[in-house]
Each structure stands twice: as C-alpha cells, then as structure tokens.
Amino acid sequence: MSEEPDNLVLPLLRNLRSDIKDVRTAMSRSDEVLHEVRRTVTSHNLRFDALDERVEMLREGTLTAIGFAANASQSQKKLQEQIAELTRRVEKLEKAL
Predict the structure, then answer these.
(1) Whether residue 93 has pLDDT greater than 50
(2) Which of 16, 50, 86, 91 is the residue whose CA sits 20 to 30 A from 32?
C-alpha cells in the first residue's frame, strides 16, 4: 500500500482557527475596554448650564476627545452652501446691472 499524501488543507485550517481565536480574544478585550469607557463616560455629570462660555468650550472639547464630537462637517457644509447661494445671487445681480 502506498502512503497517503500530506493533506495541505488541514494545517491551513488549523492556522485559520488559531488566528480566529486570537482575533476573538482581542475583540473580547476591546469590548471590555469599550464597556468600561462607556461606564466611565456615563457616570460623569457633564452639565455646565450655569457656567460661562469657557466652560462650555471645555465641555465640547472633552466630548470631542472621547469620541462624541459634534458633527462639524455638517455645519461647514451648510455654511459652504450658504456662501455658494450668496455668490450665485451676487453674480445674478451683477449680470442684471
């Protein structure tokens, strides 16, 4: 009887299983860290209603640093649209004159 050839697929599958296990372990650790960050963030009282503008800026900076940034790109987009509309109006008025 002849010997069976080495199975090339089985070692690859074992390596994949090992890699997947490592990824799952890393994801589990990441989930734990994320949950801890969420607990910490929600435990902070970030209400500074009675304080001046500088404290409000600090609050916004803190929120930005922890990943809850205000969507500045939308505000910028709206401003750009307004500028473009005003530019069109001015050009239209200039052509009319």
Answers:
(1) yes
(2) 16
Contacts of 64 (CB under 8 A, 6+ apart): 70
Q: What is each CA distance from 18 to 5, 30, 32, 60, 94, in whole angstroms?
A: 24, 18, 21, 43, 70
Identify whether the C-beta of residue 62 lies closer than 8 Å to the C-beta of residue 46.
yes
C-alpha R_g of the chain: 29
| Structure confidence at residue 58 (pLDDT) | 79
Read out DSSP for 12-29?
HHHHHHHHHHHHHHHHHH
Stretch 7-15: mean pLDDT: 86
53 SS3 class: helix
